Amino acid sequence: MRRPLVAGNWKMNGSCEQNAALVDGLTSGDRGQQAEMAVFPPSVYVANVAEMLADSGIAWGLQNCAEQEKGAFTGEASAVMAKDLGCKYVLVGHSERRTLFGETDEVVATKVQRLVEQGIVPVLCVGETLEEREAGTTIERVGAQVKAVLDQFDSAGEIVIAYEPVWAIGTGLTATPEQAQEVHAAIRDMLVGYSADLAAKTRILYGGSVNAGTAAELFAKEDIDGGLVGGASLKAEEFLKISRAAG
Ligand code: PGA
Question: Can you tell me which atom of ligand 1 is nearest the CA of 210?
Fold first, then answer.
């Protein structure tokens, strides 16, 4: 019932030439039958990548957006601009944004609102640190991050949640399918508290060192509806394999 989503977070990587080669590989390759694919290039390249992806069936989005609608915010890009560029999705609250750029749950919730106003689907990233996992507070931490956003979210709307344990991002360490499923199920339980429909329809992605070797087992879990993929999304063949692993 939930169509899997395989999302490629390019982070601050690529060039005009590399992006063209990557997009060419993705559009000409076999993505599998079922999954939806989306890519998140650095914002300066989004217009160009969007042009290359037109009519491909692959969606695109920004890795972040501003809290504000417009104005004197040097270096920022707004949800309105994302809409203008045809973005279907925008990542919000990635752990690198939270850790390196000080984004709080409140900031993240505001960004989600801005996107919803534009009809863009936010991909809300949540996850615990290694210390939090070791202290046994994973569900509490992730739950607080989800709650901060959903308390202000109209449950008739669409949102995607990406569970990304901070200790698994870019480290080569992946949560086991069981560890991931436990958190995904807890998130879905929380969603039921907002609306049964929201819980049933919301895609919950797993992220953190997903690769072609680990994807199939993760995606086979009941509450894992695809992946948010960093490093492995920069290689067309590998990302296509991950997409095919989602069905
Ligand atoms: P990774 O990144 O796959 O390179 O661990 C995932 C992410 O940060 O979204």
Answer: 3
The SS3 call for residue 36 is: strand
Query: How far away, in angstroms, is 78 Cα from ligand 1 center?
Result: 23
First-to-last alpha carbon distance for the chain, in angstroms, is 13
Task: Label residue 5 by pLDDT band (50, 70, 90).
Answer: very high
Rounded to 10 degrees, what is the CA torsion of 107, 112, 117, 118? 110
Q: Tell me: the pLDDT tens digits for 83-122?
A: 999 999 999 999 999 999 999 999 999 999 999 999 999 9
Number of folded domains that form the chain:
1
92 Cα: distance to centroid of ligand 1 (angstroms): 14
Provide the residue range defining the domain that includes 233. Answer: 5-245
CATH number at residue 61: 3.20.20.70
